[in-house]
Amino acid sequence: MSFDIALSGIQSINQQLNSTSNNIANAGTYGFKSSRANFSAMYAGSRATGTEVGSITQSMSLNGGVLNTGRALDAAIDGRGYFVTRDAQNTMTYSRVGIFSASNEGKLIDSNGRLVQGYAAVKGSTTLGTMGDMNIPTGQIPAVASTKLAYAANMSSEWTIKTPAFDKTNELSYNSAKSSIVYDSLGAKHSVGQYFVKTATGVDVHYTLDNADLGTVTSMTFNTSGKLNMTAPVNLALGTPTGAAPLSIAIDYTGTTQFAGEATTSTDRADGYASGTYTGVELADDGSVVAKYTNGQKQSIGVIALATFPDEGALTAVNDTSWVASTTSGTAMYDRPGVGMAGKLTTSSLEQSNVDITSELVGLMTSQRNYQANSKVISTENAMLQSLMQAL
Fold first, then answer.
1. Is 1:48 a contact under the CB 8 Å cutoff?
2. How far is the C-alpha of 219 from the C-alpha of 124, rounded, in Å?
3. Who has the most CB within 10 Å: 139, 168, 304, 312?
4. Which residues 6+ apart lie within 8 Å of 307 measured at CB?
C-alpha cells in the first residue's frame, strides 16, 4: 500500500512540475496568467490511498506589469476586463493580449488573426452602434468644403491712416495683409486675402480670393478698452470655383483687439480639408480606433469592447493567453474601456506575464524534495521486500 501511495505522490508531482515549467517557459509571454496545481488527498473509506492533483487554477485576477512598446496598435488593460475577438468558428474568445493590426480585408484583428469586436461609430452622432467586427475604411475620404474661418489679431492702435485709396497692389494703401487657406467642395486650395486699412472710426477689411478682388468691405470698430464691438461672424461669399459648388465662409473675428504695440495674429484657422487616402490606424486611450489619412485628418471608426465576468477564474483556457466563457464563469458583460467594471486602456503598451520567477523556482525546489521523499519511500519498500524474500 505504501508503494501505491508514494507512486501517486510522484505522479502528482510530475503534474505539478508540468505546471511550474509551463509558468517559467511563459515568463516572457504577453498576457500570460500563471497556473497552480492544487493537491487533494485520496481515500478509500476512511483509509488514505495517496494524493492527486484535484485541479489546476490560473491567477486570473493578478495583472502583470506594463511594458511600453511605442507601437500605436498595442494596448494593455489597467484593471479588469478582456479584449473580445471572434474566431473563424464564430466563437467569442477573450484575451489580455492587446496586439492589434489592420488586415488586408479592412478588419481590425489580433495577433492570432481573430476579428476584434467593438462598437461602431455613428456618423454625426456621439451614440455608438451595436457591437461587432471593427471595419476600417481603408479607401479615400472625400473633400469637405470650408464653411468657417476663425481669425483673431491685434490691429495696432498706432497704425496711421493711409492717404492713397485702397489698392492691393500698392503696399502704401493698407496697414497689414494676411492670407488664409480654404478648400472648395473638390478639395482644391484657395487663398483668402484680408487687407486691413486704418480709418478714422476703426479698421476696414478688404477681401480677395486667389488675389482677385471680391469687392466686399467689413468695417470694424473698437471700444475704449480696445475690444472689438462686432459679435456676429462676417458671411463672405467667395464665388464659385471651377467645377466646384459655390463657396462661402463665415469669418469669426472673436478675440480681435486694438491695442498699442505690434500688430500680431493669434488665430488663423479654417475648417474643411482636401480628400485623403488611408495611411494607418491607431488606438486612443478611451479605446477609440482612429483611422489616419494623408490630408492630416483622423476619423474615429468605433470603440474597442472589453468583457468582464462574474467569475473570471472559471473561464476555460483555449491556449495560454486566450479563454472562452463557461457555465460557471457567467455570461460576459460588454462595455467600453473605463466604463462600469471594465478597466482603462494604456495605449502603446502591453501587459506582461504575471509569473513570479522567484516563487516558481522556490516551488521547483520544493517539488524536487517531495519527489525525492516519495522515491525514498519506494526504494525503502523495495529493500524491505527483498529482505523478506531472502528470509523466506
1. no
2. 36
3. 304
4. 81, 82, 83, 84, 92, 94, 332, 333, 334, 342
pTM metric for this prediction: 0.74
Question: Hey, what's the cell of 167?
Answer: 489698392
Q: What pairing do the DSSP bridges indicate for beta strands 148-154 and 247-252?
A: parallel
Question: Amino acid letter at 344?
Answer: K
Q: 3-state DSSP call for residue 7?
A: helix
Nearby residues of 100 by Cβ (< 8 Å), 6 or more positions away: 73, 74, 75, 108, 109, 110, 111, 116, 283
Kindly state the DSSP code that residue 139 receives in the 8-state scheme. Answer: S
Residue (of 68, 28, 120) closest to 320 by Cα position: 28
User: Mapping DSSP to helix (H, G, I), strand (E, B) and coil, where does residue 98 land?
Assistant: strand
42 has pLDDT over 80:
no
Tally of CA atoms within 13 A in the half-sphere of 210 that contains its CB: 12
Evaluate whether 51 touches 38 at the Cβ level (below 8 Å).
Answer: no
Quick check: 197 and 163 in contact, CB under 8 A? no
Q: Where are the domains of the chain?
A: 2-61+353-391, 66-141+277-351, 148-270
Q: Report the percent of the chain where pLDDT is more than 90.
A: 62
Residues in the chain, total: 392
Candidates 145, 265, 245, 258; CA nearest to 201 is: 258
Residue 106 CA to its chain's centroid (Å): 17
Q: What confidence tens digit (pLDDT) does each residue in 254-270 have?
A: 999 999 999 999 999 99
Q: If you write DSSP's letter for every residue of 157-203 in order, what string do you get?
A: TTPPPPSSPP-TT-GGG-SEEEEEEEE-TT--EEEEEEEEEE-SSEE
Instruction: Measure the CA–CA gap between 327 and 348, rounded to whole angstroms.
Output: 34
The C-alpha angle with vertex 85 and arms to 83 and 89, in degrees rounded to 5, equals 155
Q: Residue 266, exposed/middle/buried by CB under 10 A (0-12, 13-18, 19+)?
A: exposed
Predicted confidence (pLDDT) per residue in 123-143, tens digit: 767 778 889 999 988 888 899
Residue 213 is inside which H or E element, if any?
A: strand 212-221
Q: Are 64 and 388 in contact (CB under 8 A)?
A: no
Kindly list the distances between the CA atom of residue 354 and the CA atoms of 17, 26, 59, 358, in Å, as whole numbers in the listed order: 18, 10, 8, 12
pLDDT digits (tens, 9 = 90+) for 206-265: 999 999 999 999 999 999 999 999 889 999 999 999 999 999 999 999 999 999 999 999
Q: How far apart are CA 197 and CA 166, in angstroms?
A: 8
